[in-house]
C-alpha cells in the first residue's frame, strides 16, 4: 500500500504551502498559495455541496482535483505511479481542509474511489508534523492477528429525540452486520443498554485485543462542540463528547473506531474539529465517521459491507474501497459522506484470512446460564448471554430508582419470555441494594429467616432480636427493620419475588392472591410506603393478577424476541446458527417458537437430532409434548370459548397494533373489552415496552393456534369482513403521510387485499398509496403486497374504466387509472424497475391507451397528466 501525502505548512500569517511527498517527508514538492484561497474553497463547498440543492458531485470532485493537481500536475503524476496494492491519498486536515469533500475527487473520467486498483482519500490529522504515515499491520506485531475479527458494537437511541431526528432502528444495523459476516464470522459483542457506563464494563472484558469499536446512533453539536447522543440507564438522552467516549474505551483501545452517526466526521468552521479528529488527538489510531446527515439504510449498508470485508482479512482501505463501490452501485445518495481519518499510523489488515493455518476459531455459541439462588434452582441467562430487552430494563430501572409513588415493578408475561433473566439484570444494575431472592411460594416465617440471614453485622444484633422474638405483626416488624436500616445507613433491600404465579389462585377467569399470601405482600408494601425508604420489590409472574396492591407497582408486560433481538438469540444457539440445517426446517422451528427464548433453546436441541425433521413433525402434531414449558395446565381452563373467539379475531393482525385496533376487530363479540383485558392479564396478548400506556401496541400470541385448535382465524366469508374492518381501523390510525414505517404500510395493504369479496380492493389500495404521495415506504409496501397477489390481477379489460373516465372528461380519475394500468402490467409481467417496464410495455395495450386518450381529448392532452409524462419516455 502506497501513501501519497499532502501536508500543509504556514508561510507567515497569510500564506501556506502544500507539500507533496511519498514515504520521505524531506523529499517533497511544494506549492505556495494564499490562506484565503482555502477559505474560498470552503465557502464554495458551503453553497454548492453542503446544501439541499447540491451541485453535481462530479463537478465538485473535478474542481477539488484540479485544485490539488496544480499546473505542475502533482496529483496526476502520483496517480500514474504503479499501485498494485492500492493508493492512499493522505490530505492534511489543517486550516479547514477537513471541511472539503475529498471523497468526491474526480480526474475527469471517474471518481477516484471507483478506480481499480483502489485509490482512497484519507483525512490526515498530522498535528503539524512533517512525517510520513507509518503502515501499521498489527498493534503488537508485524502481522495481522491470526483469529476472527473482534468487534464491539453499541447502538444508542435515546427516548425523546425520535421526533426531532427520526426514530433509529437501533438493532437493524447489528442484524445486517451479522448477516454480512455469516460466512466469515466476527466475534461480535454487543453492549445492550446504550449507556457508556455499561459499555465500560464490556470493554474491560477485553485483554487489549479489541479490533473495532462501532458506535451507531445520532450525533449533533452542543454549545458548539460535537457530541454523540447516548443513553443513560433509563434511556434518556445524554450528550456524550469525544472525551467521554475515549475514557470509556481506553482500557482496551481498538485499532479502529467507527462513529456511525450523522456529522461525526464533519468539521464545520476550521476551528472546532470533528469528533473523529478529537478522538485522534486524544490518541486513537483511526476513525471512520459520516460527514453529513446520512440515511439509516445507507449507513447500515455501509457498515455491513465494510465489516464483511474486514472480517475476511482485507485491509481497512481495501474494505473501504469496496464499501464505496457497493454504495455507488446501489445508487446510495450519501456514499461520499463516509470519511476516514488517521493520524500517525495507518492500520492495514486487522486479522488474517479465514483459512490461514492455525487460525484461532470463533468461540462456539454459548447459552451459558447462572443461578441466582443458593439452592441453584433459579436458572437465568448470564450477563454476557442476555439479549435485548433494553426498553423494558430502562422502564423498570426508572421506577425502581426514581418513582417514589411506586414500591416496585411487576414483570409479567407468558412462560419462557425471560422474566427471571430481566430481574437478574436489574439485580446487576442495582448494586446499592441488598438482594433478597424468593422463588415461588411465599411463607412469612421463611421470609423473616431470609431477612435475618442478611443481618450479620454485630451492630445489627438488636434488629435481629426484634425480628426473632417480637410478637408484633409482620407489617410492624418490617417497618421497624426498614427504619432502623435507613437510620444507620445500611443498604435498603431489593426483594425479588420470582415465579410469583405460585402464589395465585384462579378466580372468575383471572387470578387473585392466595389467602395466606395477601397479608405478606400487603405488609411489604405498607412498610415501604410508611417508612419512605428505598426498599423495593420486583415481582416476576406469568399473569397480571387482580389486587389493589398493584396500584403501587409499575407493570412491565413482555413480547417475544423479534427482528435484531431474535437474530442475536439465534446466533448464540448452536444448531440454529450452524448453517447445516435446511431453511424449511429452520422456518418450521421458528414458527413453533414464535420468538419465545425458552422454546428457541428447546427447538435448538431438537435440531441437533439425527431425525430432527421427524421429531419436529411429531411436536407439530402433538403440542402436549412441549406446551407445558410455557403454559400451565390450569390456564387452559381459563381460556374459555368467549376468550378463544376474542383471540381468534385478534389473529387478523400480523404485527402489534394499538388496543383500539384490537377492539375494532372484536367489537361485535360480547364483552370484548373485558375479554381483551383478560387475554392481556393472562399473558396471551403481548404488549410493547412503551412507557406511556397510550403508546403501547399489542398482538395475540402466535403460539396459541399451535396449542389450542379452536383459536384460529374465522373461515371465509366471515374473515373477509374482519379483514376489511381491521384495514379500515389501521388506515384511520396509520394511513397518513407521517407514517414512515414500511411494516405498518404492509399491514394496511395486506389486510386490504385479504378481502377477496371486494373486487376493487387492489385499485382502492392504489388510491390509498397515491393519497400519500412521495412516501417511499408506502410505495414499497404497496408494491410488495401487490406482487404477492399477482395471480389475482385481471389480465384483460384493463382499459374499460379508463374509457369511462375519459368519456366523462374526468381527467384526474383518468390520469390515475392510466398509472394503475401501467402498475398492473409492471407487477404482472414481473418487471422490477420502472425503466424495464417502459422498455417492454405491451404495444397492444399501449396503443389502446393512446387511442382512448386521443379520441376523448380532441388531441389536446393535459400536459400535467401522468400519461403524457409516461408516453414521452416510450416510443409509440
Automatic annotation (TrEMBL):
Domain Orc1-like AAA ATPase: 385-503
Pfam families: AAA_16, CHAT, GUN4
Residue ranges annotated for the GUN4-like domain, each copy included: 800-860
Keywords of the record: Plasmid
Domain of life: Bacteria
Stretches assigned to the CHAT domain: 60-333
Protein's name in the database: GUN4-like protein
Organism: Nostoc punctiforme (strain ATCC 29133 / PCC 73102)
